[in-house]
Amino acid sequence: MTANPGSSWHRNQDSSVALAQRLDRLARRLLPGGITALVIVLLAAPTGFPAATALLPGLVMASVFFWSVWRPASMSAPIVFGLGLLMDLVGFASPGVDAFVFLLLHGIAVHARFGLMRLNFLGMWCIFAVLGSAACWLLWFLISLLAFRPMPLAPVVFECLLAIGVYPLLAAAGTWAHHRLANPEPQS
Length: 188
Prior knowledge:
This protein is an all-alpha fold. The chain is 79% helix and 0% strand.
């Protein structure tokens, strides 16, 4: 009885290929949340860019909504919760406020995703405009409630407009990335 000298090599090669495939799937799954977290950290850094932190809630809301509809496994509830806590830490908000509002937005998007996926871009943008505005106003209400006084209204209106305005850009980049994540090999 002779052992096949190539059999252990093939097994090792197969296991390394399987490991590489699992790592690739994990990286693809974590990419939307990781990029969103990186954007939070970069925009919260003192760069001298005026109103950089004002862009954060709108960008994060748009990212959470988009990826919750198109790839809910990549923007899961724990990832959304972590992004919300990171936003609370860099925005000096009460811990859990952003996380709570982002989780509500995520839950609505995941729950309605099959209906939302049938909409064209304009319909999706309108739905996000309503949900993003509601999320901004809920943030304002919760922060005002925790501060025991109403916060100024101008920033919340600005946040609503920014969230609505940034969605098309994020949706275009997200659509491109979504297709690249689904079909990583170049099309010939």
